[in-house]
Amino acid sequence: MGLMEPNTATDIVAEAEKALEDIGRVREEVSKVIYGQESVVENVLLAILSGGHALLVGVPGLAKTKLVTTLGTVLGLDANRIQFTPDLMPSDILGSEVLEESEAGRRSFRFIKGPVFAQLLMADEINRASPRTQSALLQSMQEYAVTIAGQHYELPRPFHVLATQNPLEQEGTYPLPEAQLDRFLLQVNVGYPDKAAERRILLETTGAAEEHASPVITAERLMEIQQLIRKMPVSETVLEAILDLVRAARPGEGHEDTDRNVAWGPGPRAGQALMLTARARALYEGRLAPSVDDIRALANPVLQHRMALTFAARAEGMTVSDVIASIAARDFN
User: Fold this and answer.
1) Domain boundary among 231, 263, 290
2) Which key words tag this protein in UniProt (predicted)?
3) C-alpha separations of 114 from 64, 96, 203 in Å
4) What is the pLDDT of residues 26-47, one digit of tens each?
């Protein structure tokens, strides 16, 4: 599985070097505006490079929205933003049909596209909207299309949803349904910046002039890099590590700790997400093939929103991240 034809291998090496250069320029441009938070930027970029969607979780005021708008600019994507609120309706996302009358008196319906028709959709505070409205995004995230009144409309390519979410303990939030959480390739936890980064934020953002990001690549170039990532070889060792990790996180697979602590575990989409993001992480770090270390590093962002703990585990104060860390620490070689 990890082998390539010699000429294909040479082509991929040359393509990977060009892609690495472009990714380096993207990282540099983002760092002009977003200070610290390297792992957050990395994980969100990995989700986009892998062709998927990302869910950013953190308290308000940690520059989640700013990161998404910056990425839209830097990656050359046509971006729209929706502020999710309890009274937001599905038609506010997808669009709606309006009845028009021509000069001749003929009436017909015309579809007016909603903000989902963009290459990068920022779903701000997604868990503040009702479950009905949240689910309006489901079809578009999976099928890259929407159906309105029986008509099928394709979404622009590439299409990425970057959603932000407040911690569920906060007032006025609705938990995302499991089916929707599974559509997100990665969940990225956004923590507080360290002191050095916070010092820089204070100095750089309160002066007369503020730094702005510029476009570095185009949407077409992004899709070329996404295709390249899908061509990168994955060794049998890494494939086995992915299977072992995902299966070890499911109850009923013969792992005593998992059976005791996990109520339900990740499905096959988790393995697909690891296959894609491990390749993207290898390229991001200048390597041509992913390693088992990539799988360990990505275990938490890939698995944490795809599993739930038992009541007993929660009562003991365990978190999903604790359980994933102990599973990922096992020997997969």
Assistant:
1) 231
2) ATP-binding, Nucleotide-binding
3) 23, 7, 38
4) 888 888 777 777 778 888 889 9
pLDDT, tens only, 270-301: 888 999 999 999 888 888 888 888 888 898 89
Structure tokens, 209: 């002039």
pLDDT of the residue at 5: 44
Cβ atoms 80, 137 nearer than 8 A: no
pTM of the full predicted structure?
Answer: 0.82
CATH number at residue 148: 3.40.50.300
167/263 same-domain check = no
